[in-house]
């Protein structure tokens, strides 16, 4: 979400049309998901390349955490991989330039793979292979389905890859931002509060604020106002203030019950708002050629986010009082 918002605003600042800026933001957001391909390692091996049983989540995360937030979360890797993804998807009528660009891109990606194997062994090679393959497939899909140039794709990829690791500073082990160099940037997780539950609530608030940022950027570029999409249904989220009396205080180690329940509250607010809107009396039938309100989906998302925000505020207030 952060990658989408920053990339879209950057494109608007560059004077791009709103639609192209949104596409650029979506591409950056897609590349921002690529670093988490490292957890795919856990699907294939723990020890001796044995398959991890899906019914054992502890085993899965134990294997995933061996490589998560390391190789693919590096700013150094991002700075090299992003241009390479653009180069391997170069399109030009000049055959010589085409093959040179693609050859340089392939060599750069092969070099990253070689470095990963040299520094982290076979495990590093597996993770980097998944990262490179995923990036090339994503880049090819973007070039096939959009009008973005190879250079624009590389910039979008750089924004996406570079912004991804920062959210992990609050929720897990700090990412290896300078891999393959053994130079730690952060000694540990950034604490928002000494109380583990308040830390989780703060981290959740940061993630929620990031989503709000993306929604505001989308609304801005599409000429919509968030204020006009508000609905009284969001006040239902205040009922979640009773949750601290009923639920075990969540922490980063045990947070599923909190996350799923508060998301359910937001979904409930959005659905209730939609039902209220659908049940309002209509005077006159719409013309067959009339297009559906494009703001309906944005309104659904906005009301849901507002409901979650109210629920989070209510939960935090009650928790602080207890």
From TrEMBL:
UniProt KW keywords: Hydrolase, Membrane, Transmembrane, Transmembrane helix
GO MF, one annotated term: hydrolase activity
Transmembrane feature ranges: 70-88, 100-119, 125-142, 149-167, 198-221, 233-252, 258-275, 296-321
Pfam families named among the record's database cross-references: YdjM (PF04307)
Top-rank taxon: Archaea
Family matches, as InterPro entries: YdjM-like (IPR007404)
Protein name: LexA-binding, inner membrane-associated putative hydrolase
Organism: Halobellus clavatus
């Amino acid at each position: 979400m952060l990658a989408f918002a920053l990339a879209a605003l950057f494109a608007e600042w560059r004077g791009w049309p709103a639609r192209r800026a949104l596409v650029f933001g979506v591409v950056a957001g897609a590349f921002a998901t690529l670093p988490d391909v490292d957890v795919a390692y856990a699907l294939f091996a723990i020890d001796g390349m044995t398959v991890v049983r899906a019914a054992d989540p502890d085993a899965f995360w134990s294997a995933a955490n061996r490589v998560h937030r390391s190789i693919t979360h590096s700013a150094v890797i991002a700075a090299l991989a992003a241009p390479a993804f653009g180069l391997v998807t170069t399109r030009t009528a000049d055959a010589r330039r085409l093959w040179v660009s693609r050859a340089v891109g392939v060599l750069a990606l092969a070099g990253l793979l070689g470095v990963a194997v040299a520094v982290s062994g076979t495990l590093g090679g597996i993770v980097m292979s998944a990262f490179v393959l995923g990036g090339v497939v994503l880049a090819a899909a973007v070039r096939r389905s959009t009008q973005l140039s190879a250079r624009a794709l590389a910039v979008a990829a750089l924004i996406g890859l570079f912004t991804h690791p920062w959210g992990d500073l609050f929720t897990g082990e700090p990412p290896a931002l300078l891999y393959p160099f053994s130079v730690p940037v952060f000694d540990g997780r950034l604490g928002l509060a000494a109380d583990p539950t308040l830390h989780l609530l703060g981290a959740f608030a940061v993630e929620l604020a990031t989503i709000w940022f993306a929604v505001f950027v989308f609304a801005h570029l599409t000429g919509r106002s968030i204020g006009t999409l508000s609905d009284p249904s969001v006040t239902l989220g205040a009922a979640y203030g009773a949750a601290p009396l009923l639920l075990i205080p969540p922490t980063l180690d045990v947070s599923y019950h909190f996350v799923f329940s508060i998301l359910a509250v937001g979904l409930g607010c959005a659905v209730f708002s939609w039902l209220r809107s659908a049940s309002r009396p209509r005077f006159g039938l719409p013309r067959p050629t009339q297009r559906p309100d494009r703001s309906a989906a944005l309104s659904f998302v906005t009301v849901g986010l507002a409901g979650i925000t109210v629920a989070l505020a209510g939960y935090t207030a009650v928790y602080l009082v207890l």
